[in-house]
Every structure is written in structure tokens, then in C-alpha cells.
Amino acid sequence: MSEENMNNKYNYGNFYDQTYHYGCENCGRSIVEEGYKFNLCKDCRDKLSKRPIPPSIKLVFLIVIGLVIYSLMRFPTTMKGAIAYERGKQAEEQKKYSTALEEYKKANEQYNNSGNIKSKIIIAQYYNGNYADVIDLLIALEGTTIDNEKLYDQIDDISLDLQDIYVLDSELSNLLDIIATDTDDIKIQKLTEYINVHPNNNMAAYMLSDLYCTQGNYEQAKYYMEIMLIQHPNNQYALVCMAAIERELENYDSAISYCNHILHMNVESAGAYAALARIELKRLNDKKALDYIEKAYELDSDNLSIMETLAETYHYNDMIEERNEILNIIKEHDDLSPEDKEYLESFDSESIE
């Protein structure tokens, strides 16, 4: 036998050994079913395919399936909250705090235990000038974790700012109780005595300014409001009041500058647009006033003062149907004061001063 044939025989035998080695991996049979990854004969494959799955594997499988189903169900909700939060941040960067507030509230509906989102709502309310709401939210935030240091510092600054204005010392609190039913003249006298001793008390200055406005003494009103603005130059209540005072003094450029100061902080300030509308009404620029007050109403459609200014602006623009529609909405408002009702009556003859 030639060497070549011997080699062929050897190779053939070696091939046979390899084929036999790859028979059924379970029982050793040489005949296996083709087309499968594992070499098994038909009988062994049938037996293994019918073997029951162990309970532990079933349990793990059910847990995994449950988590997947929960994630799929929760995904649209969490995505909605995340998108709202990002939109709120974007609006905040653009100083659109009305939009930011709306988006942060949506995010809070999905993540109502998030101290960070609650903090964002407080910041948005603050820049919208809703100080009463801010104070309520700050109280509710107590004990909540804020894990963002920058956010924590912002909330701390807002809290200190409002405390300096609206938290009364015991002496002023007692004085206000004593003069609660007195005439405006006596209130002015007593508050003046108090502020002479406490010249930097913001609330006393604010109250004196308001009392002088009621009496039509706008120079004195301006003097006391400036005391507050020196210490709190960004307080929107004070800025709107100063715009009104300067308007009545016919210092229109100065009045507008106070409104613009607010809009620099928040381009969506309904209060600033309403103040601008009242300035233009005073200057008999009725069309321009209409543009401003409609913007204000778009931003805050439940504000009674804005609705009253809108009705008045419609009146001066001879938009009687629109005016009456707003008046009907005002009449249904929950917070109508005697002054508001008197104001509504001035429209009965379709003529107001």
C-alpha cells in the first residue's frame, strides 16, 4: 500500500473517530438529528423538550416579565413628567416664569415627592410675584430634601427676602391690632410714630404708602414706597405700586421704567402688563392699553384686577359686547369686595368716569 493510500486510510479513520465523538451528547448514539446547535438523538431531544421548568426559574421569569410590563405602563407617565420638567427649565432660562410654573406643576403631578421640583415651583411663583403662594409653599417644603446645592441656596434667599418684609415683629403686630378699626388718619399717625423709631421696617413703610395712596397723597406715598424699594429693589408689589404712584403723578416715563424692571426679571409678568395698560389708559392711548391688558389676561385669566382693567379697556375701545362678557365673568367671581361691586355698577349706564 502506497504511502498516499496509507495516509488516506489513516485520515478516513480519524474522520470516523471525530464523527463518532460528536454523536448524541446525552446517550452516545451515533445518529443525531441535524439542524440543531446541540447534537442529540431524536429520543433524547423529545425527552428534554418535555422536561418541566423548575419553579425557581418560573418565579424569576414572572418577576422579570412583571417589571417589564410595569416599566412599559409607567414609561409614558415618567416621560411626560421628565419632558415637562425640561420644558420648565428651558422657560426659566428664558425668564418665562408663567410658562415655567405651568410646566413644573405638570412635572410635580408625576414626581410629587421631589424636593427639587417643589423648589422650582417656589422659584417660579416668586418671579411671578405670587408671594402669598410662595410663603405657603415654603411652609409645606419644611423637612423636604433638596439635593441640589444651588437650588437650596435660591430657596434660602427667597425665604430670607420674604421674611424681612412679611414677618412682623411683636411691636408692629400689636400696634396693628390696636389701630385696626381706627380712621386712616389715626393709622397714619400711629404708623408714622412707629417708623420713626424703626426707619427700615418694610411693612410699616408699605402700609403708610398704601394709606397715603388711598387719600390721594401720592408724594407721601412715593416717599414711603421708596423706603421699601431701597431694601428690596426687586419686590414686584412695590414696583407695581410705584408704577401706579408715578402714573398718578403723571411721571409716565418713570412709571413705565418700573414695569420694565419687572419684565426684565420675568418677561411673562401679568402684573407688569396690566400696569402698563393702566398707564396707557391714563394717557388716553386706548389701543395700546388694549394690547397690554389682553396680554396680561392671557397670562392670568383669573386675576380680578386684570379682568376689571380689561373691562374698562374694552369700554374705552367701544367694544361693548366684549366688555359685557368680561363683566358677566367678574360678577361670578368668588372674591368680589364692596368696592368691586360698586365698580361694576358704574358700567350700568355704559358710561364710566
UniProtKB/TrEMBL annotation:
Whether Transmembrane counts among this entry's keywords is: yes
Q: Where are the TPR repeats?
A: 270-303
- Bilayer-spanning residue ranges: 55-73
Tell me the domain of life: Bacteria
Q: Is Phosphoprotein given among the entry's keywords?
A: no
Gene3D superfamilies cross-referenced by the UniProt entry: Tetratricopeptide repeat domain
Q: Which InterPro entries match?
A: TPR-like_helical_dom_sf (IPR011990), TPR_rpt (IPR019734)
The alphabetized UniProt keywords are: Membrane, TPR repeat, Transmembrane, Transmembrane helix
Query: What is the name listed in the Swiss-Prot or TrEMBL entry for this protein?
Result: Tetratricopeptide repeat protein
Question: What does UniProt list as this organism's lineage?
Answer: Bacteria, Bacillati, Bacillota, Clostridia, Lachnospirales
